[in-house]
Amino acid sequence: MASRESFHPRESAMRPAPRAFIRFARRLASAAALAGMAAVAANAPAPDAKAPDAAAARQEALERQLESAARAVVAVRVRALGNARSLASLGAERSGSGVLIAPSGLVLTIGYLILEADQVEVTDSSGRSLPAAVVAYDHATGFGLLRPIAPLAGRPVPLGDASRVEPLDRLLVVAAGEGGASVATVVSRRPFAGYWEYLIDGAIFTVPARADHSGAALLNGEGELVGIGSLLVMDAMTPGTRLPGNMFVPVDLVKPVLAELIATGRQRAGRRPWLGVSTMEDDGRLRVLRVSEDGPAERAGLRSGDIILGVAGEKVHDLPGFYRALWAAGEPGVEVPLVVLQGSELRELRVRSVDRLDFVRHKPTI
Asked: Are 244 and 234 spatial neighbours (Cβ–Cβ below 8 Å)?
C-alpha cells in the first residue's frame, strides 16, 4: 500500500507540467466523437459542432478547471511512531498523495497513510514542503484529514457527486510525483470488503492500474473530486475475474461527516466493535489470515488458519456478512461469540471487542 522511501522530500514530489492536463481536457472536449462517451463532465452538454466559438470557450474553461484541480494535489510523506502497531503491514515511512479540499482548506487523503503518524509533511504544487498535523482518521470510510501549518499553493478542489460516476466514464487520476496525471476508465461500481474489518458501498474501480494510487485524486470532467485512491486490485471489473486496476473511495462517504471529522477527529457512527482479525473468503468459508498481536482475537485464542463459521448466532460465508453481524452485536466492548473450526475441532470463542482507535497508538501530546 505505501512506500518505504526516504522521508526527505524529493524533486519528484512536485507537480508535473500542466500540459498533461491540457491534453486530457482536449480529449474530454472531443469525447462526443467517441460512441457512448459523449460528455465526461456530469450532465454537461456535448460541444455543438455548429458553434465552434462556444465549443472553444467551453474547452478553455475545462482546461482551466482541470489544471486548477490538478495543482491542488500534494505529496504526503509520513514517518510512523516507533512503536506503531502498523509497522509490519504499512512500514515506518510512507508516501502518497492528498488533495486540498473546499471549503475547509485541509488535505484529504487515504487514512492508512497517516495511521499512527509521528511526523507528516506535505509538498504542494510550488514545491514547498510544510509539516502537517493529523486532523482526523476514520476507519469506517478509510479517509484521513491533514492540516498544514500554513496555507498551501493551489485552489481547494470542490467535492463532486460520486453517485453520478458510472462504468465507462473516463476520469482523470492525479498523483504527486513522477506518475502525474493519466486518464482512467471506470469499469465497475460495487461494495468493497477489505480483509482488515473494512466495508464500504459504491467503491469506484478503474483501469489501467497505477502503483501510485495511495491518496491519488480521481477528478471528473468539471475538475471536481469524486474519489481518493486506496488500493491496487486484481479484479477491478468483476470479483474473481482477473483485471488489474485501482479502487477509489467515493467522496460521497466523507461529505456527510466532514464537519464532524474536522471538529472531533472521527465520526461517532464509525465506532464499531473491532476484533483485530484479517480474513479472506475461501470457497464459501472465512479463513483467518492473521490476528493482530495482543488484539482481542488473539487474546481470545483465534489463530491463523482458523475457519470462522458463525458470529453472534448467525452463520457467515463472506466478508460483508461477517462484518454486518459483528457490527450489529453492539458497541465496542461487547463480547462477540464466534463459532470457529480449528483444525478438526469445532469451538466457540468469546471475543471482547474494542474500539479500533483505542487499539492503535497515538502521538503523545503535551
From this structure: yes
